[in-house]
């Protein structure tokens, strides 16, 4: 990063030089003044920076992308470790297999995600937006590619203003090609979470993807290309709903990126001979605005466009070092801390307050319930449906009813189950090819086994009409894996 202190004040960019116009565009006409309903957009040329928060942003980029791009390639028991298989309607997550009947766990997981967002936002603002949001992550990756190909923010600005030439065409083409490859690979990886990655990989040479696979690869890839390559801060400013309602989760004790106005004002360039008391610590270099990925001037106070990434802190601290002034003109702090001059101990002492305690207690309760549900989950589902076309057949001294029995083995190992029936004296299973004489039936790994069974009972065991019977399905090797289903057994009048 170039040193703003070495640049003559006349040549320094104004603080808003790289920021989008925040007020509505106004133009004069013969009839008078017309005001646009929308702000005029000005392209941002974000200046690169380095520091603690920038390092953390890149750490989160690596973590999230290793998870996103890496998990589909891991194997487990000879299959993809994480596969949300839509065709088979099964979710494979390492050693667990989840079925549509387990949608409750997905619902709880979404609730946990929502309350986590509320909880961490109440504590430290828009951490998700600044460090883990896909829009933020991919924008950072695209900006890195852009800088490697076209140069720093000044070089990119000059390149865009320059007339079309062979060099400009080559640089732009190279940038768009790199963006395109990354975007398509992102779309391919997204689909690999829902369709076996090995099958997708084998389809690349012949482009033999299925219709929905082709659609989502290009759909997700195109939106990655457009959002991270062109729209960037406009997604955060105009399209993201979270930016609009996140302020309701803030309070005066929420940690946010803040400019210390009392210390920084009045701001201006420092010259030899100036009275130090006549100026604040801010020299109005505008670097904090130039490094902001959404073009926010943090000196104007908290704004909904701020994603809390801390880039302005990383930019301002080195300037303070060069001026032999204390760091923290722009810093993470709270509204109360700024007003009352609190230190770190007072700030962190107010982390636990009614709002965060309520969010944290609810979140802890939901997480506990989720873990308990997973730990006590019985990997067996049973559906029992009586044949509605049969009202009970008379076969000598016996009455017979037909049922469809569906056994879902929710593990990846074959399992043998024992079938028992009670509720009527002498009730028993009829002959069936899939059920042995010992009432044993075997379901394969992650199999949804469907068996048509005949149940018989003596004519004198029940009353005419409806009688209640019960099916017990118990795993032979683990008695804790069992289900008890009730059914109706009809006796003819």
Describe the structure.
- The protein is built from 16 helices and 18 strands.
- It has 493 residues and is of the alpha+beta class.
- Strands 10, 11, 12, 14 and 16 form a 5-stranded antiparallel beta sheet that branches.
- α4 packs antiparallel against α6 and α6 packs across α8.
- About 5% of the residues have low confidence.
Largest sheet: 5 strands, antiparallel
Total helices: the number is 16
Mean pLDDT: 88
Approximately what portion of the residues adopt beta-strand conformation?
15-25%
Total number of beta strands? 18
Sequence-ordered SSE layout with sheet pairings:
Blueprint: E1 24-29, E2 32-39, H1 52-70, E3 75-76, E4 79-80, E5 82-85, E6 90-93, E7 96-98, H2 103-124, H3 127-132, H4 134-150, H5 153-161, H6 166-192, H7 197-203, H8 211-231, H9 233-239, H10 242-245, E8 256-259, H11 261-264, H12 287-290, H13 311-322, E9 330-333, H14 335-340, H15 344-349, H16 354-375, E10 380-386, E11 393-395, E12 398-409, E13 415-422, E14 428-429, E15 440-443, E16 448-458, E17 465-475, E18 482-491
Antiparallel strand pairs: 1-2, 3-4, 5-6, 6-7, 8-9, 10-12, 11-12, 12-16, 13-15, 13-17, 14-16, 17-18
Helix pairs in contact: 1-4, 2-16, 4-6, 4-8, 6-8
Task: Jot down its keywords.
16 helices; 493 residues; Immunoglobulin-like; elongated; four-stranded antiparallel sheet; alpha+beta; five-stranded antiparallel sheet; 2 domains
Structure, briefly:
By secondary structure, the protein is of the alpha+beta class. The protein has helices spanning 52-70, 103-124, 127-132, 134-150, 153-161, 166-192, 197-203, 211-231, 233-239, 242-245, 261-264, 287-290, 311-322, 335-340, 344-349, 354-375, and strands spanning 24-29, 32-39, 75-76, 79-80, 82-85, 90-93, 96-98, 256-259, 330-333, 380-386, 393-395, 398-409, 415-422, 428-429, 440-443, 448-458, 465-475, 482-491. It folds into two domains: 1-12 and 48-377, no CATH class; 380-491, Immunoglobulin-like (Sandwich).
């Amino acid at each position: 990063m170039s040193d703003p202190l070495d640049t003559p004040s006349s040549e320094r960019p104004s603080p808003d030089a790289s920021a989008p116009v925040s007020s509505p565009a106004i133009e004069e006409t013969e009839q008078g003044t017309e005001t646009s309903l929308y702000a005029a957009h000005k392209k941002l040329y974000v200046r690169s920076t380095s520091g603690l928060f920038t390092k953390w942003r890149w750490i989160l980029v690596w973590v999230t992308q290793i998870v996103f791009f890496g998990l589909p390639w891991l194997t487990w028991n000879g299959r993809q470790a994480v596969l949300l298989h839509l065709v088979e309607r099964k979710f494979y997550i390492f050693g667990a297999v989840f079925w549509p009947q387990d949608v409750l766990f997905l619902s709880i997981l979404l609730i946990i995600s929502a309350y986590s967002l509320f909880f961490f936002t109440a504590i430290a603002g828009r951490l998700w937006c600044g460090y883990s949001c896909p829009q933020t992550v991919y924008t950072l990756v695209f900006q890195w590619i852009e800088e490697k190909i076209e140069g720093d923010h000044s070089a990119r600005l000059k390149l865009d203003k320059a007339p079309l030439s062979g060099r400009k065409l080559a640089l732009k083409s190279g940038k768009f090609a790199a963006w395109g490859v990354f975007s398509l690979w992102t779309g391919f990886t997204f689909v690999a979470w829902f369709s076996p990655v090995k099958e997708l990989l084998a389809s690349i040479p012949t482009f033999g993807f299925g219709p929905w696979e082709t659609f989502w690869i290009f759909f997700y890839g195109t939106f990655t290309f457009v959002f991270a390559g062109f729209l960037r801060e406009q997604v955060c400013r105009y399209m993201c709903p979270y930016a609009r309602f996140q302020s309701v989760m803030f309070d005066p004790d929420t940690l946010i990126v803040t400019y210390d106005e009392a210390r920084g004002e009045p701001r201006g360039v420092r010259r030899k001979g100036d009275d130090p008391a006549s100026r604040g610590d801010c020299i109005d270099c505008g670097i904090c605005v130039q490094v902001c990925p959404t073009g926010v001037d943090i000196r104007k106070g908290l704004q909904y466009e701020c994603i809390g990434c801390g880039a302005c802190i990383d930019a301002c601290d080195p300037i303070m070092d060069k001026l032999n002034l204390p760091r923290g003109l722009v810093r993470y702090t709270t509204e109360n801390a700024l007003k009352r001059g609190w230190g770190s101990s007072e700030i962190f002492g107010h982390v636990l307050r009614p709002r965060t305690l309520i969010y944290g207690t609810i979140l802890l309760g939901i997480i506990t319930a989720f873990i308990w549900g997973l730990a006590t989950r019985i990997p067996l589902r049973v559906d029992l449906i009586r044949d509605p076309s049969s009202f009970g057949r008379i076969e000598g001294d016996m009455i017979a009813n037909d049922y469809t029995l569906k056994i879902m083995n929710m593990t990846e190992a074959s399992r043998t189950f024992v079938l028992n029936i009670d509720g009527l004296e002498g009730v028993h299973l009829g002959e069936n090819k899939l059920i042995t004489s010992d009432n044993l039936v075997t379901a394969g790994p992650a199999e949804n086994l469907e068996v048509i069974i005949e149940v018989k009972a003596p004519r004198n065991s029940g009353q005419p009409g409806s009688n209640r019977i019960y099916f017990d399905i118990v795993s032979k090797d683990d008695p804790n894996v069992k289900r008890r289903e009730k059914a109706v057994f009809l006796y003819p009048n």
